[in-house]
Amino acid sequence: MKMGHGSNPQPLRSEIGTSRPAMAKVGMARLAVTPQVTVSSPFRLWARINASGTAMMLAATTTAAERTTVSHSEVRMPPSPVQYSALNYKDALAAQGHPGVALALPLVPGIDAVGKVIESGNPLVSVGHEVIVSGADFGTRSWGGWATRAQVPAAWCIPIPSGLSGRETAILGTAGFTAAQSVEYLQRHGVAPDDGPVVVTGATGGVGIFAVRLLSKFGYHAVAVTGKPQRAEWLREHGASEVLSREDVDDPSGRPLLSAKWAGGIDTVGGNPLATVLRTTRPGGCVTACGLVAGHELSLTVYPFILRGVCLQGIDSANASREYRIRLWEKLGSEFKLDDIESLATETGLSDIEESVQQILQGKIAGRTLVDVRR
Length: 375
Ligand SMILES: NC(=O)c1ccc[n+]([C@@H]2O[C@H](COP(=O)([O-])OP(=O)(O)OC[C@H]3O[C@@H](n4cnc5c(N)ncnc54)[C@H](OP(=O)(O)O)[C@@H]3O)[C@@H](O)[C@H]2O)c1
What we know:
By secondary structure, this protein is of the alpha/beta class. 22% of the residues lie in helices and 24% in strands. The protein has a six-stranded mixed beta sheet with strand order 12-10-8-7-20-19. The chain has a six-stranded parallel beta sheet with strand order 15-14-13-16-17-18, with helices on both faces. A three-stranded antiparallel beta sheet has the order 1-4-5, with no helix packed on it. Strand 4 (44-49) and strand 5 (55-61) form a beta hairpin.
């Protein structure tokens, strides 16, 4: 549902909440209010309004005529057949206007984007270079990748690694980067394949499946935990040595320590599953934590830490430095390079993204969802 008129270089006043047919597609019917939003940008807007009546852009497009002056620190990516965004769990939260993720409204979600630079006022990035933008404020405070163009600080642009195509880089995106961070932390902590099994929660999710693939590549016994029993075979095909149900790693007893099983863990869900993994990790083991789909609270005692020396390593991909990003992306294209990355991708367009958002929020998606911003 395109709102407003994109060729108008003046601040645009869009009426959101009229009875255009496409609105029903994004759940507008339940709204009682007809608010307006004033947008001082040259973007055409796609909008949805959440239950509280907050206007939020789901996507934006521009035309060449709408380009504004590029400041010294910014670069632009063009509407290009090689530009991709993706659907991360965080994007789904942003699309819901989650106050912890959508830090400024209105917002174009999309924490990942891949494209070619068409303008740059900064020597860090050259016109024509293919780059990935992810992390920092992209898609949370600043407008993100669910658009045909993005205008971002040059420091946010990371060159596509030499060993990967732009499309492969987009499929990996924040999920692949976070999985690589997690595996690298376990390696640095000294967790070796011979030490015992490494458990991965939320294993069919974006971070989870790349973690399973990477652990398998390096010879670890990867134990995939999933709420999708129908995906057990798929997980094995992607390198899981064992598949467990969510209930197997969600101990309700509250006992401070449980039988020690894991040499390490990559937790993508938080909450009691993370607490359970920590209580079942072997002495000297390490567990990484990046997610919260099962809960943001962590209820446990200090015993895993003081009686078993377990290490809990937090993962924060969004605030990784530019140097760190360049190094890890290069690694994802070389030492950490996975075969057949394409097999993990499905695609959606902006026109049907609402359905995919609901699916990822309900934990129904397996693998990675690329967003084709041209449809
Ligand atoms: N800290 C960081 O830098 C960082 C970076 C990237 C992602 N994250 C976070 O990591 C998490 C995973 O991200 P993602 O993009 O991989 O998400 P995703 O693709 O939606 O994967 C999440 C997976 O978690 C499992 N799951 C869903 N609901 C669950 C529930 N209620 N209880 C237990 N498991 C559940 C599902 O896998 P199964 O059906 O296989 O169990 C789901 O596929 C999210 O919380 C995200 O915000 C953090």
